[in-house]
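Predict the 3D structure for this chain.
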Amino acid sequence: MKILRISVVLVLFFPASFLFSQTNEKWTLEKCIDYAFKNNIQIRQAAITSKVSANDNQQSKLNLLPTIDGNLNFSNNFGNGFNPQTYSYALGNSQSVQTSLQGTLPIFTGLQQMFNIERTKYDLLASKFDYENAKRNIALSIASSYLQILLNKEILKVTEKQKVLTGTQLSTIISKIKAGSLPETSGYEVESQLARDEANVVAAQNAVDLGMLSLRQLLQISDEKFEIENPEVKFEDVENVAALSSQSIYQTALSTQPSIMSAEARMKSANASRKMSIGALSPTITVFGNISSGYFSQDRKYSVTYDTITIGGTPLSFPRQNDLGAKPFTESLRDNFRKVVGISLNVPLFNKWQRVTNIQNAKLQVQIRELQLESSKNQLRSDVEQAYTNAKAAVQSYLANKKSMEAADKSYNAFEKRYNAGMLGTYEFQQAKNSLATAESEMIKAKYTYVFRLKVLDFYQGKALKLSE
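Done. Predicted structure below.
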């Protein structure tokens, strides 16, 4: 009994500890994207839609097989009725059983079946590309949210650093006030700055928390202990962006973006539908077959005997039908067994102009799909050009802000030396420190904006979204 209790405790403990360790595990960008691929509702819907298209494509191929149907009918007739086997009038109550098995096989339908297979094939391709497009879009959204969190965390570090510097400065001033080398009013401005720094830390931490909440909602995770990894972000060389061109990226995107390939597949599907509508004008040839049998309770079994009489010396035989009673069920089925094989030709002559209207609408649908493809390409070109322009601007902004921060850092170091030597007032020193904090924050923003813009270019070139190798 004691061993059993220990076993129960272990069974209950290990899953809980496993979940706890999983919950506290930090998530990389790749893990976030993989998780979204498996759990995001939009992606799952796109996957189900793709499976439906696969079933439709499979069914279009199975439509080439013959159609076979079986039928069994039993009826209990009260009063006089009709014998379906002998096509004669029957007196009294009766029961009947009718069985049949029929099959049809289209031999020629104007190639409509073949074009239907082609149509469903392209519909399947389009749904697969839609699925991939949904995955790529969610991956880009997650990368954007992930980088925003990293940016907010970097800004939080800057605000915490500024708070520590201000606290150190306040401690130094308090020591000098106690020593009598500074008046008591000297610390008021620094105390005020420390309060502002504390408020900045709270605001920066709130930005981090909101970013984490946004990413959790994007991943549809409710665990508040969710935490991401802080990787060493890889920064590409500036020359890499300069070596690219929007036209080359666009040409690559044309062959890698699922949205374009989906639009192309749908255009081909519409063209196959157009061919199907033309095929409806063609005559159709169908082979059919049928086997059937039946039983009627008033069927009788007869025997024939011949009576012979002599008239004028000539013997004449006359048949006489002898009623042997109701015909047995199995014997009725055997005697009534019929087989039919045939071929039918159907020639469409006039259907209120419906077939011609269908052809015209199918042609218009092809034009619509062609325009949608052209629109998708134009939108892609616009998006690529915008992304490329943003990337170039982000590079310049990053370099400029990097120089600005380096200059602000040198200025702060110079002001700090003068302040410690008593050659500079508190207000001027605070201005230099605030300028450094602002320059550092702007540089960090420019840096992560630069990284994200490069990831967008990677997205249009069909590359995987990664922050580090």
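The first helix runs from residue 2 to 24.
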